[in-house]
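SEQUENCE-TO-STRUCTURE ENTRY
===========================
Question of interest: how does this chain fold, as expressed in C-alpha cells?
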Amino acid sequence: MTKSNDNQCKPEHKVKVVLNGEKVKIDSGTYSVTNLKASLSIPSDYELEIIEDGQFKPLADNDEITICGREEFVSHVKCGGSS
C-alpha cells in the first residue's frame, strides 16, 4: 500500500501530522510504516492507522506511506492475538 497526496511533497521538509489528536512535526517523504512508527515514537508492537475520509485504515508494518503533511493517524495496542 502506498499512500500519497495529490500535491508534490518536498523531501526532507518538516511537516505537521496529527497523531492521536496531537500535532507532530516530522520530515516529509516516503517511509515504511516501521520507520514511520519510529519517527513518531510509537512502540513497534503498536498498530498504526491512518484516518482518511473519516475511515480508520490499518497500516501493515511492511507498507510504505508518503508523508506530505496534514495526515492524521491513531496508534493503539494491537487487538487479538494468542493468550
Remarks:
- The first helix runs from residue 33 to 39.
- Strands lie at 2-3, 14-19, 22-27, 29-32, 46-52, 55-59, 64-67, 72-77.
- The CA atoms of residues 54 and 72 lie 10 Å apart.
- The chain is about 10% helix and 50% strand.
